[in-house]
Amino acid sequence: MNIIELKHVTKKYDDGFVALKDINLTIESGKFYSLLGPSGSGKTTILRIIAGFSSATSGQILFDGKDITNLDAAKRHLNTVFQNYALFPHLDVYENVAFALKLKKKPEKEIKAAVKEALHTVRLDGYANREISELSGGQQQRVAIARAIINKPKVLLLDESLSALDKRLRKEMQFELRAIQKKLGITFIFVTHDQEEALAMSDEIFVLNEGTIQQSGTPVDIYDEPVNDFVARFIGDSNIVPGKMIQDYEVEFVNKRFECADAGINPREKVEVVLRPEDLDIVSPEKGKLVVTVESQLFLGDHFEIKAHDGDENEWLIHSTNPTEVGKEVGLYFDPEDIHVMRFGESEAEFDARLEKYEGEDEDEN
Ligand SMILES: Nc1ncnc2c1ncn2[C@@H]1O[C@H](COP(=O)(O)OP(=O)(O)OP(=O)(O)O)[C@@H](O)[C@H]1O
Fold first, then answer.
1. Is the CB of 38 under 6 A from ligand 1?
2. Is the dihedral of CA 32, 35, 37, 38 positive or negative?
3. pLDDT of residue 236
4. What is the pLDDT of residue 366?
5. CATH 3.40.50.300 fits domain 2-224
6. How confident is residue 222, by pLDDT bands cut at 50, 70 and 90?
């Protein structure tokens, strides 16, 4: 079931800057979504428009199928967790978490039970009487979440809410947030510029750049089939080289022809080819589909990051669990499915239509 829909939403700020250009997105109930993009891409603007803190210049926002474009923020069934948590420093944990229910003048007994349950959900049992200043960053984050879930919103908006934490705590909170979302079964919309974080946590990701959605889909879809070079570069490491389509399922790059899994592109059309570093296997030069010379090698704990160049002066990034030798000539092996062919200027809708057509044909053949 769709809980939130944005239809043709644009946002022009007072100074004339257009921060969102015709945004269309659908959020289903009970899933974890990320809005992912570099600084200034419009993530927070989308969140603020959904929350009702900012209004769209044009377009429509639906909540549970009803138009809420002009509805007051306070009347929307959602809460927001801000980057700085916005906790009240002069109130203790209990008072912070109880705040929304006290405002609604709920009976004390009901409030007590709700605070207990919310603190239990975020694993802060026994912290009710602590002062905010006596909590670690991760604990403050949990209080902010407890406060936001106490009145059981249908949607929780989280704006870069892990960015103040150190790396280890951040990882821990990623698991935690995901577990809380699953337990509560409510929709989370999480804003982040960290692609690893979005990949690890989300059911679905919207990748944004310059006020437009570049691609939406599951983490695996977006990683495996980036629609354009922005997405390919932004999500994970990648090797991107220019190429030319020969025919369906055959592409040329670095002056060689390779079998690939892509179709529906015109013969001789110029394309870009993406190969992920972990899809390149180092083999002997005779067995390689490409021959490269190793330039550098770094041990990164769980893999070696190897840089190499081919005769055409393309640099190749390789992630390998085995070391090689700097200066050595080696072969690179990859499967046809590891080659991702991208058309210039293809929109996500065109990309999806092309994929659907060919997947449909494959099924017909089987
Ligand atoms: N009140 C405003 N007036 C004019 N421009 C604004 C205003 N608020 C935001 N912008 C601009 O709109 C664009 C999108 O901003 P937004 O905060 O949505 O980006 P973001 O993707 O959340 O970035 P970050 O990760 O840095 O928070 C930016 O270029 C920003 O400078």
1. no
2. negative
3. 87
4. 45
5. yes
6. very high
